Amino acid sequence: MKLNRNNEKESRRNFLRKVGGALVGTGALAFGGIELYQQNLENKRAYLSAPIKFKKVPKFSQKGETIGFYLTIDDGPNECLGSILDLLNSDRRAVFFVLGSCMEDPQTRCGIDSGNYTKDLVRIIKGGHIVGNHGYSHKHLSELSHSEIEDELRRTDYLINQAYDLAGKNREYFFFRCPFGDDGFYDIPGVGKSGSWDTKKFVHETLDNLGYKIIPLGIYPQDINFEVGQISEEDFIYNCSILGNEEILTIHEIKTTVNLTLPLYFSKPNYVVKDPENLSKLYFT
Length: 285
What we know:
Largest sheet: 5 strands, parallel
Structural class: alpha/beta
């Protein structure tokens, strides 16, 4: 029986959303030199590497409908940021969801570190991109106390405000992406259950008080998995081709983004990066 390609692609898209919602970010901090979250990952890694077999549909086509997508890049700033910015321009603007631990001065812990890619952070802002909040240390919010959650959100918020001050720009958009897609409560088959509805409510109320909108993960093509050799280049490129019109692409500040992911999308004239400001109209807490 021949598998319907549209059904197959939608099944793959649902899988990538599921992976993104549960697992995006796993292992990513290693590329930023941060060793802050090694706990509770083994079952997630097993889930990530589970064999998912689909017949191949045609890879990227330079013909067909225009695919307008939102570009979001997580887990910086790190050494890849400058090279990523070199590939972007006024027509290819992104939301960079940053971690406070990658921005903060490790000595004083009371402000932005002038040596921690601060020049590139200023480039983000002056280039018309948006700096979003991804928490301080990429921990599961469902596993934290209320005071720890507030610290994760507010510390990074303070550092982002400093970056905008250094760039001489007003901060107009307040976007937050939950680490691992975890907003205080999740119950995912194969991964587990964590947090509570009370914690989830606290996360949303705290973000609302700070003026943030939660931006969902969208499509995660498993770029980290490819970077560390868990999936093949063929599977990774196929995952990238799943991205549909008006969807959010979630990738990371890693070498794969510089060497493959962005050049791949930007080589296809029917793939167009949408203005990131529009996310404020589409997604709300």
